[in-house]
Amino acid sequence: MRDKNLDFNSFRVQFEKRILSFEDKFNILRNHVVDNPNFLEGDWYIKIPQWNLKNLLRIAIIHWYMPEEIRYMLHLDLQEKKKHYSLQDQILISQFLISKERMILFLKETQMWHSRDFFGNILGKDCNNLVEKLRFKKRISIIRKTQRKRGYHDHGSRVLEHIFKETRYISRTKELKELEDERLTFEGTLAFLEGMLI
């Protein structure tokens, strides 16, 4: 936090006090689960109204304090949703998903928020509403009948010989190499941050 005179213990007390104010909302999630012995069969997920970065960070913070069965499912969902964001955002989200202690330490050491901004905007009233709107949903697989037809589905995608250009494939190889370099940098940054916060 950007507060100059905020020590770690007072931040942790204030942080956990705010999180525990959501505790009665966690029980709502348990009430919405169907009492069914076949509950674990099939593919279940937790529906969040809006998957934006701010909501994802809120859920990543709060999920450490939820009951174990809910926390486990949310953690898996967050790991999957993280992949849809840019590498910079993935680094940020990963800091919240390593462990609860690492997350608290990261929040104290980061300069991204002031404590008023963090407790007012990130863990404010909107966060309370977000926790209320979490629901268990079952993924329904739609069975599609095979469609009979003649010919290829894409009507032939091969480039004609007189239009074929090798430079197109060379530039694509460069793009893939740059993406791989970014991923390696991302992994190195995560390892560096983990070493700094120990």
Helix- and strand-based class?
mainly alpha
Q: Quaternary status of these chains?
A: single chain
Round the mean pLDDT to the nearest integer and report it.
Answer: 81
Low-pLDDT runs of 5+ residues are none
Give the count of structural domains: 2
Radius of gyration over all CA atoms, rounded: 23 Å
> How many extended strands?
2
Q: Give the strand content.
A: under 5%
Ends distance: 18 Å
Walk me through what this model shows.
The protein is mainly alpha-helical. The protein has nine helices and two strands, in the order H-H-E-H-H-H-H-H-H-E-H. The chain has helices at residues 8-20, 23-31, 53-62, 68-82, 87-97, 100-109, 115-122, 125-132, 166-197; strands at residues 44-47, 135-138. It has a two-stranded antiparallel ribbon with strand order 1-2. Helix 3 (53-62) packs parallel to helix 5 (87-97). The longest helix is centred in the C-terminal third of the chain and has 32 residues, at 166-197. The mean pLDDT is 81.
Essential attributes:
198 residues, mainly alpha, 2 domains, two-stranded antiparallel ribbon, 9 helices, 59% helix, flat
Describe this structure in a few short sentences:
This protein has 198 residues and is mostly helical. It is 59% helix and 4% strand.
Secondary-structure map with pairings?
Blueprint: H1 8-20, H2 23-31, E1 44-47, H3 53-62, H4 68-82, H5 87-97, H6 100-109, H7 115-122, H8 125-132, E2 135-138, H9 166-197
Antiparallel strand pairs: 1-2
